[in-house]
Amino acid sequence: MRISTSHIFQNGIDVIQRQQAELSRTQNQLGTGRRILSPSDDPSGSVQALQFESRIDQTKQFQRNGGLAEQRLRLTEVTLASVGDGLQRIRELSVKANNATETDETRRYIAGEMQQVLNGLVDLANTRDANGEYLFAGYKSQTQPFVTQGGEVSYQGDDNARQVDISPVRKLAVGDPGNQVFGDANVPGALKDGNGTFLTVPKEDNAGSGVISSGDVVDRGAWQNAVGAVSGELEYKVTFDNDGETFSIEAFDNGAGITTDPFDSLPTDQPFQSGEAIEFNGISFDIKGTPADGDEFTIRPSEPQSLFAGVQNIIDALQSPVGTSTAPVNNAINRGLSELDNALGHVLDTRATVGARLNALENQDNLNQDQILQLETTISEIRDLDYAEAISRFNLQQVGLQAAQQSYTQVARLSLFDYIR
């Protein structure tokens, strides 16, 4: 078989170029530290690496979401702590005002300080985060949630809690709607007036010195049976007769009297003893002082009420002049103290849920970090270079290239004329 000179030269050049290409590829691998430089190097491995990179990017986005959520929740926790401090101060002032030695003037001073604390509470309820969004406005994050109009604080947000994704299958609330945190909403867990189950209210024109307590629930089942037995709004009225020496209790449904079970055995013409517990249909309360003939007290199921309204009721009572009896202001403060205790407990419960979410964020962040490390390890096994093998291969390719170059130069020097004598 005849082999032309041009074929020999071309074959030598092809070998050198192939060796140079392989050496260059190995050099690039050593420079980048990656085994796969293009999808053609390992199609299957390239697809797997891309899938894992996508999951890493997604997990890092979840971590960024968690970081933003943590900042917002920590601000919420600090804000609620300040709300609790404000409520505690109002409680201290209420206890101080509930003293017989206070005068109309000193009570007005106390009411003035309470008003300043209340204004501060409204400001806290309108707290914004670093992005200028309101913490307690629900989805309406650009709308101021609480507005004071005519001495009343109204809620302008919605009932929704904002959420963020912290994993492919998990969402976390990064805020609470203000009407649930500060009350005045018919939603589960919302604040209610009175002791949270029922409210005790003296009649405005009571002439005696009777002061009713906020009361307690001694048999929740009996109370719920009584509430469920009416079609409308249940009310009990405690009325005093015989110069306040006896009392009777009647039940009403939307203003109409009820005499059927469980209301047919309510106390009637019972002797009254100041401070002695009065119990019926699962509830208990007492009345201290000396009620006058015809004085009346109403007991009804608790209704939603914001903590702002509860504080304002105390302020209004302290600003009203007291006549010969301090019973009206004492009744208002008793009710207010019970509602303040409920509000403090409610704020603490909300803070506890915020703390639980912060713990959940921390746990999820640790889990995300572990997942990222595992994914990066897997990608490294697929895509990264084995330096020991690559260096050995690089040295071998260098030798091969040198051999190809030297053999080419030897072949290139061959000439038929060297053998003609």
From TrEMBL:
Domain of life: Bacteria
Location of this chain's protein in the cell: Bacterial flagellum; Secreted
SUPFAM superfamilies on file: Phase 1 flagellin (SSF64518)
Keyword Secreted: yes
GO CC, one annotated term: bacterial-type flagellum hook
Keyword entries, A-Z: Bacterial flagellum, Cell projection, Cilium, Flagellum, Secreted
Domain Flagellin N-terminal: 3-140
UniProt xrefs under InterPro entries: Flagell_FlgL (IPR013384), Flagellin (IPR001492), Flagellin_C (IPR046358), Flagellin_N (IPR001029)
A GO MF term: structural molecule activity
GO biological process terms held by the UniProt record: bacterial-type flagellum-dependent cell motility
Ranges of residues in domain Flagellin C-terminal: 339-419
Keyword set includes Cell membrane: no
Family, as annotated: Belongs to the bacterial flagellin family.
Name by which UniProt lists this protein: Flagellar hook-associated protein 3 FlgL
